[in-house]
């Protein structure tokens, strides 16, 4: 019942955001903008989406090394399946499915692998904030004065997100220092909780902390962070290529600002970030770069399709090879138990 209620809420949110995005939109004008988009730039954007998946798989393989050797092929397949699941299921279910899919092919704890995904998200946030800071402090000084209120809001939001991200890294560093001690501490909760539940928390905590092995080795953490910049520069290139296809006045560095806004948009837990992705991209183009609403809506629709298309097609292909259809992925997400060894 709770799962059905959550799905209804998420779908209602998606429809509400799409309603805002498409409010008073000139449908014919949007279709015309899409038809006039330059195919060579769209092709470049599509290529970057495949490269993004590969870089994510390489970085994940690097973060997983403290848990054991993982082949690039299995990391790539699991990454594609995870992103495909997030494209069709609510609440970013792919983040849960991804480590469990990997654990089917590699001898490691799915809970430990999930910890590396949490670390990935923090590294992504740091990389995006560094690129945003470079735009705010260096490249974006020539924005119109009319945008300064919104630009100031972006600065404060970025500073707040940076503080939260580095605080979270500090907490994870503390948790990763001694996985066994963390497990023992959580097990002692048996004094106030049922012993079975306390034991489960202890096992989860120890495996999760073990998965944060990269944090215990600063050189490995730095290496993973370095991997994050080619990833997000490639994502930025894909975004910029779409703006070039629609002949929009957005410099390459302007994609750093658009990326930060899209990170906020995809945080809304709708399937495939539908609604949140579209509206944040539209707002970024119209508010900061003076793009017409019609062109902004058209480019947002195309960018979203290019962003989820490669991972969705590859992910469904790889899942199908394992006998997993959409219902199977939903069941895997619902039944995933971080406390159970994989």
Kindly describe this structure.
The protein is an all-alpha fold. The chain has one domain. 77% of the residues lie in helices and 0% in strands. It contains 15 helices and no strands. Helix 1 (2-21) packs parallel to helix 13. The longest helix is centred in the middle third of the chain and has 30 residues, at 110-139.
What is the oligomeric state here? single chain
| Rg over C-alpha atoms, rounded to the nearest angstrom | 21 Å
Strand content: under 5%
Number of strands: 0
Principal-axes geometry comes out as globular
SSE series: HHHHHHHHHHHHHHH
Alpha plus pi helix count: 15
Number of domains: 1
Cα-to-Cα separation, first versus last residue: 27 Å
State the share of residues found in helices, binned by percent: over 70%
Q: Helix/strand/pairing class, anyone? A: mainly alpha
Give the integer mean of the pLDDT values.
81
Give the biggest beta sheet.
none
Q: Report the uncertain regions.
A: 195-202, 337-342
Short characterization:
The chain has 342 residues and is mainly α. Helices cover 77% and strands 0% of the residues.
């Amino acid at each position: 019942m709770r799962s059905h209620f959550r799905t209804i809420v998420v779908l209602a949110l998606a429809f509400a955001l799409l309603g805002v995005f498409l409010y008073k939109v000139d449908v014919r004008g949007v279709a015309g903008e899409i038809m006039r988009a330059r195919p060579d730039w769209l092709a470049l954007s599509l290529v970057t989406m495949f490269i993004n998946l590969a870089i994510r798989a390489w970085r994940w393989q690097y973060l997983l090394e403290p848990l054991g050797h993982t082949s690039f092929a299995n990391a790539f397949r699991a990454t594609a399946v995870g992103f495909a699941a997030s494209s069709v299921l609510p609440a970013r279910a792919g983040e849960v499915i991804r480590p469990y899919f990997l654990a089917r092919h590699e001898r490691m704890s799915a809970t430990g692998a999930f910890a590396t995904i949490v670390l990935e998200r923090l590294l992504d946030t740091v990389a995006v904030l560094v690129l945003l800071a470079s735009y705010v402090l260096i490249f974006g000084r020539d924005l119109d004065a009319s945008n300064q209120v919104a630009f100031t809001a972006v600065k404060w939001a970025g500073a707040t997100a940076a503080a939260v991200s580095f605080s979270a890294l500090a907490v994870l560093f503390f948790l990763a220092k001694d996985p066994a001690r963390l497990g023992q501490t959580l097990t002692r909760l048996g004094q106030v909780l049922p012993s079975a539940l306390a034991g489960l928390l202890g096992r989860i905590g120890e495996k999760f902390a073990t998965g944060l092995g990269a944090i215990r080795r600063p050189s490995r953490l730095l290496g993973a962070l370095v991997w994050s910049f080619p990833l997000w520069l490639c994502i930025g290139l894909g975004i910029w290529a779409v703006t070039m296809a629609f002949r929009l006045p957005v410099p390459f560095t302007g994609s750093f600002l658009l990326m930060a806004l899209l990170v906020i948009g995809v945080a809304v837990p709708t399937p495939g970030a539908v609604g949140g992705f579209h509206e944040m991209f539209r707002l970024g183009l119209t508010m900061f770069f003076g793009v017409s609403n019609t062109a902004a809506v058209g480019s947002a629709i195309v960018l979203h399709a290019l962003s989820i298309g490669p991972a969705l097609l590859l992910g469904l292909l790889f899942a199908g090879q394992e006998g997993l259809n959409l219902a199977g992925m939903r069941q895997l997400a619902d039944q995933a138990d971080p406390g159970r060894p994989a």
